[in-house]
């Protein structure tokens, strides 16, 4: 009879397996395999090059630029969005008039599609009549084109990502803060513990699991969220805001160099895997779980 | 270091939460070095009063003095009190030692002194072997001890406790009652202890403050409160079974004081007995408790419970009720005790020595 149950079990799992394998596992394996071959062009068939595509990266200035940009972008957006989210959560983690409105306004950017967010910010950045420029002109400063200048383009897309993400992370921090019992605060107050000390010695350690979760998400998003780059800069000017994922898109779907794009994808996944797993292992020792 | 000469003087304190009046014009003096228990039913304002003393909450009106100092508006830390919470409020991410030392670290006590005090307190509380454990790895009783150790190590003269034993099982609670009382005596602490368990209050207190609906009903030694309840509320709240309250008509031709106003007669279960003659009572049930028997009966319109030794024969279904005249309490119909009818008993004036521990 056990055999019959197994057949049922496999039959029930089959549809899920079929879809997972067809749309996730096969393409992943295919991508890995493709990265060792050249892109077929016209009558020239694809040939095996081994690590040829990977060697090409080392001499590809745009790839190097994209890697550096991605590193800067991650180094800015990850800590900034986490800290901002925590500060916002602390601000609205109490009761005062209008706290509901404040929570909602912090959370709104999360609900908006990133494309829409990017359009809003394009208006802020627009030279001449944009919000920022109007303020600059009001104070007698010269007009500036933040999204359109090579030295500021990367930072202007980073700010949009922070604005978009902080609200989302805030929700997690807010939920975590609400699990810190009020009596702990009172017990600490009796001992003469200042609010800052309490935050540092008690609140922060207690919300550490959430911080870890949020930071893993922030890392993934730093490499994954590039929608606004399409709208705002298209990686330019002069590759100033070129990010790794955007470069993969350009290589694969604008220049149709699919093999090279596959190799780039493998690099991206490797980075995410190493960073993500590393985070869990390093942080796990310092996180207190209930 | 612990010993305190400062009484806690509470004068006309009220606390309202919007429409709810949690405390109404409460005045009481808590003696230094004494174990004072705030006792009352759920929702009567005990925790509210304790939190006002601690400075975790502010009164709507009235004043609180600790010693000569008016503490209204000062921070909890400035009041120099320690507190044990019902939920213990241990920091879950810190181990036992760090939990106990939390306050000293915050107040920047030198390291050498911290270590020395920790060793002593851990020894005293039987926690020496558990210092590296996290609170989640401790039993309820051990967590309770850690919470207590955190209060003791502060060496503050006043310790406030809000139902610290309510999360423990019955056996552990009995043990901890004895330990707590011994600790208080040994250190000369001023303890203010909140409970709704009258056994805890009776066994530990020097002074019981009976509260009801935001007011103080009575303040006195356990003995006073038990034998001479000041109000019918206290009479009905203290004692298992509570004091029986008779319409005097139901006790006619018994030994009663001559009261010239409408009133009620209160009698404790153990002060009644089967007499050769007296007002007649009818048995409705008998409960056997091992050493005692609780006899439920009615006399006229009044239902009451009488305690008799299990060795004594069960009374017949209809019996004459007797009582000791010196045990009679007389209450006016508004619930207040009429003290002028109290039987003068010299033994009651003696010092209550039930709790003296060597
Ligand atoms: N923060 C608050 N907001 C509104 N009402 C409150 C607040 N704290 C207490 N109360 C009210 O004040 C009254 C007294 O509460 P308190 O906590 O002092 O009771 P208690 O005697 O400690 O009861 P228990 O034995 O159940 O702990 C209750 O009616 C309660 O609902
Ligand atoms: Mg309470």
TrEMBL record, chain A:
<feature type="domain" description="ABC transmembrane type-1">
    <location>
        <begin position="67"/>
        <end position="277"/>
    </location>
</feature>
<dbReference type="InterPro" id="IPR051393">
    <property type="entry name" value="ABC_transporter_permease"/>
</dbReference>
<feature type="transmembrane region" description="Helical">
    <location>
        <begin position="71"/>
        <end position="92"/>
    </location>
</feature>
<dbReference type="GO" id="GO:0055085">
    <property type="term" value="P:transmembrane transport"/>
</dbReference>
<comment type="similarity">
    <text>Belongs to the binding-protein-dependent transport system permease family.</text>
</comment>
<dbReference type="InterPro" id="IPR000515">
    <property type="entry name" value="MetI-like"/>
</dbReference>
<feature type="transmembrane region" description="Helical">
    <location>
        <begin position="104"/>
        <end position="132"/>
    </location>
</feature>
<keyword id="KW-0472">Membrane</keyword>
<feature type="transmembrane region" description="Helical">
    <location>
        <begin position="7"/>
        <end position="28"/>
    </location>
</feature>
<feature type="transmembrane region" description="Helical">
    <location>
        <begin position="198"/>
        <end position="220"/>
    </location>
</feature>
<keyword id="KW-0813">Transport</keyword>
<dbReference type="GO" id="GO:0005886">
    <property type="term" value="C:plasma membrane"/>
</dbReference>
<keyword id="KW-1133">Transmembrane helix</keyword>
<feature type="transmembrane region" description="Helical">
    <location>
        <begin position="152"/>
        <end position="177"/>
    </location>
</feature>
<keyword id="KW-0812">Transmembrane</keyword>
<dbReference type="Pfam" id="PF00528">
    <property type="entry name" value="BPD_transp_1"/>
</dbReference>
<dbReference type="InterPro" id="IPR035906">
    <property type="entry name" value="MetI-like_sf"/>
</dbReference>
<feature type="transmembrane region" description="Helical">
    <location>
        <begin position="259"/>
        <end position="282"/>
    </location>
</feature>
<keyword id="KW-1003">Cell membrane</keyword>
<protein>
    <submittedName>
        <fullName>Sugar ABC transporter permease</fullName>
    </submittedName>
</protein>
TrEMBL record, chain B:
<dbReference type="InterPro" id="IPR003439">
    <property type="entry name" value="ABC_transporter-like_ATP-bd"/>
</dbReference>
<dbReference type="GO" id="GO:0005524">
    <property type="term" value="F:ATP binding"/>
</dbReference>
<keyword id="KW-1003">Cell membrane</keyword>
<protein>
    <submittedName>
        <fullName>ABC transporter ATP-binding protein</fullName>
    </submittedName>
</protein>
<dbReference type="InterPro" id="IPR013611">
    <property type="entry name" value="Transp-assoc_OB_typ2"/>
</dbReference>
<dbReference type="InterPro" id="IPR003593">
    <property type="entry name" value="AAA+_ATPase"/>
</dbReference>
<dbReference type="Pfam" id="PF08402">
    <property type="entry name" value="TOBE_2"/>
</dbReference>
<dbReference type="Pfam" id="PF00005">
    <property type="entry name" value="ABC_tran"/>
</dbReference>
<keyword id="KW-0067">ATP-binding</keyword>
<keyword id="KW-0813">Transport</keyword>
<dbReference type="InterPro" id="IPR047641">
    <property type="entry name" value="ABC_transpr_MalK/UgpC-like"/>
</dbReference>
<comment type="similarity">
    <text>Belongs to the ABC transporter superfamily.</text>
</comment>
<dbReference type="InterPro" id="IPR027417">
    <property type="entry name" value="P-loop_NTPase"/>
</dbReference>
<dbReference type="GO" id="GO:0016887">
    <property type="term" value="F:ATP hydrolysis activity"/>
</dbReference>
<dbReference type="GO" id="GO:0140359">
    <property type="term" value="F:ABC-type transporter activity"/>
</dbReference>
<feature type="domain" description="ABC transporter">
    <location>
        <begin position="8"/>
        <end position="238"/>
    </location>
</feature>
<keyword id="KW-0547">Nucleotide-binding</keyword>
<keyword id="KW-0472">Membrane</keyword>
<dbReference type="InterPro" id="IPR008995">
    <property type="entry name" value="Mo/tungstate-bd_C_term_dom"/>
</dbReference>
<keyword id="KW-1278">Translocase</keyword>
<dbReference type="GO" id="GO:0055052">
    <property type="term" value="C:ATP-binding cassette (ABC) transporter complex, substrate-binding subunit-containing"/>
</dbReference>
<dbReference type="InterPro" id="IPR017871">
    <property type="entry name" value="ABC_transporter-like_CS"/>
</dbReference>
């Amino acid at each position: 009879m056990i055999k019959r149950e197994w057949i049922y079990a496999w039959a029930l799992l089959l549809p899920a397996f079929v879809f997972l394998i067809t749309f996730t596992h096969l393409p992943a394996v295919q991508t890995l395999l493709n990265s060792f071959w050249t892109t077929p062009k016209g009558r020239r068939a694809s040939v095996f090059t081994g690590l040829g595509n990977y060697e090409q990266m080392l001499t590809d200035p745009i790839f190097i630029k994209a890697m550096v940009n991605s590193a800067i972008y991650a180094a800015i957006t990850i800590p900034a969005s986490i800290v901002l989210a925590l500060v916002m959560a602390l601000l609205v983690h109490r009761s005062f008039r209008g706290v509901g409105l404040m929570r909602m306004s912090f959370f709104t950017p999360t609900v908006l599609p990133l494309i829409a967010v990017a359009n809003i910010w394009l208006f802020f950045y627009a030279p001449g009549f944009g919000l920022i420029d109007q303020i600059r002109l009001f104070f007698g400063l010269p007009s500036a084109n933040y999204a359109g200048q090579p030295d500021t383009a990367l930072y202007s897309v980073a700010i949009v990502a922070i604005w978009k993400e902080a609200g989302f992370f805030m929700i997690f921090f807010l939920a975590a803060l609400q699990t810190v019992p009020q009596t702990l605060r009172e017990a600490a107050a009796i001992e003469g513990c200042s609010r800052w000390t309490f935050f540092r010695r008690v609140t922060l350690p207690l919300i550490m699991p959430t911080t870890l979760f949020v930071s893993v998400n922030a890392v993934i998003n730093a490499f994954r969220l590039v929608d606004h780059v399409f709208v705002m800069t298209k990686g330019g000017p002069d590759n100033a805001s070129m990010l790794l994922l955007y470069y993969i898109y350009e290589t694969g779907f604008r220049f149709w160099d699919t093999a090279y794009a596959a190799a780039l994808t493998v690099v991206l996944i490797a980075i995410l895997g190493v960073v993500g797993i590393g985070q869990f292992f390093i942080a796990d020792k310092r996180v207190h779980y209930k | 270091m612990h010993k305190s000469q400062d009484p806690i003087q509470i004068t006309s304190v009220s606390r309202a939460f919007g429409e709810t009046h949690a405390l109404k014009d409460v005045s009481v003096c808590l003696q230094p070095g004494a174990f004072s228990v705030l006792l009352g039913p759920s929702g009567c304002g005990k925790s509210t009063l304790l939190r006002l003393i601690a400075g975790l909450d502010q009164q709507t009106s009235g004043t609180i003095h600790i010693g000569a100092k008016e503490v209204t508006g000062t921070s909890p830390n400035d009041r120099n009190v320690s507190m044990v919470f019902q939920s213990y409020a241990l920091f879950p991410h810190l181990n036992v030692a760090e939990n106990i030392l939390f306050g000293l670290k915050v107040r920047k006590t030198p390291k050498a002194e911290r270590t020395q005090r920790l060793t002593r307190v851990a020894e005293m509380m039987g926690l020496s072997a558990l210092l590296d454990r996290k609170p989640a790895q401790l039993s309820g009783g051990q967590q309770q001890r850690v919470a207590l150790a955190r209060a003791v190590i502060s060496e503050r003269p006043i310790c406030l406790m809000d139902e610290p034993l309510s999360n423990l099982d019955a056996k552990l609670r009995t043990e901890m009652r004895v330990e707590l009382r011994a600790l208080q005596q040994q250190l000369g602490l001023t303890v203010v202890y909140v409970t709704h368990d009258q056994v805890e209050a009776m066994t530990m207190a020097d002074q019981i403050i009976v509260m009801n609906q935001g007011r103080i009903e009575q303040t006195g030694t356990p003995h006073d409160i038990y034998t001479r309840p000041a109000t019918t509320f206290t009479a009905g709240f203290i004692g298992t079974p509570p004091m029986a309250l008779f319409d005097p008509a139901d006790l006619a031709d018994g030994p009663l004081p001559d009261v010239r106003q409408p009133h009620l007669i209160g009698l404790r279960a153990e002060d009644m007995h089967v007499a050769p003659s007296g007002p007649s009572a009818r048995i409705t049930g008998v409960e056997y408790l091992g050493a005692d028997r609780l006899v439920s009966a009615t006399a006229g319109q009044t239902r009451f419970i009488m305690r008799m030794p299990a060795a004594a024969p069960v009374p017949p279904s209809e019996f004459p009720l007797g009582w000791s005249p010196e045990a009679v309490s007389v209450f006016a119909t508004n619930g207040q005790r009429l003290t002028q009818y109290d039987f003068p008993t010299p033994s009651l004036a003696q010092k209550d020595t039930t709790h003296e521990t060597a």
